Amino acid sequence: MSRYTIALNNHYQSRRRLHAVTWAEVQSGPPHALSWTMTCKVEGEVISTATANQKGVAKEEAARIACERLGIN
């Protein structure tokens, strides 16, 4: 986990909403050039989506967008 993913998780854990944040992942493209799309959901509502060549990078970008939209530092 990276900075924004941790910030998002900590925000909800501190409010005792441990399972509020969930992730959906989709991979696409040929095996030698996979693309990952990660979707961040908070209490079932889609907050952000990001796509990158690496799963972790896509997740961190989706977390960054989510933090920005939700006002989480």
From TrEMBL:
Keyword terms, alphabetized: RNA-binding
Organism: Suillus discolor
UniProt GO molecular function: RNA binding
Cited Pfam families: dsrm (PF00035)
UniProt KW RNA-binding keyword: yes
Name under which the protein is recorded: DRBM domain-containing protein
Residue ranges occupied by any DRBM domain in the UniProt entry: 1-72
Superkingdom of the source species: Eukaryota
